[in-house]
Amino acid sequence: MRTRTTAAILIALVAPIVAQRSSAADDPAAVLKDLTAVIALQGQPCGQAVTATKQADNDYIVACKDGSRYRVFINAEGRVVVQKQ
Question: Which domain holds residue 20?
Fold first, then answer.
């Protein structure tokens, strides 16, 4: 039950970030800030996103200040996924 609640909260927090793609797309700093938040909400170490390469809609490769690299995307079920690269 706790896992479902945590997942629901995470989705509720991340969905607006991803949905605001059009306004954030105009500001690269906003995209990095949003991706940093998404990675942190998934419990992955990053510190701060320094670069983000867009692969497709809602699909980014993110390089972090600490040297970590992640792929952040939305899967077929509509969930945000953060994969360590």
Answer: 2-84
* Predicted pLDDT at 27: 84
The DSSP-derived string for 39-84 is HHHTT---S-EEEEEEEETTEEEEEETTS-EEEEEE-TTS-EEEEE
Could you state, in chain order, the average pLDDT of each consecutive group of 10 residues for the chain (85 residues)?
62 64 69 94 93 93 96 94 95
Distance CA 56, CA 30 (A): 18
pTM for this model (two decimals): 0.69
Number of domains, the chain: 1
Decide: 55 and 61 in contact? Cβ < 8 Å: yes
Task: State how far the Cα of 85 lies from the Cα of 67, in Å rounded to an integer.
Answer: 11
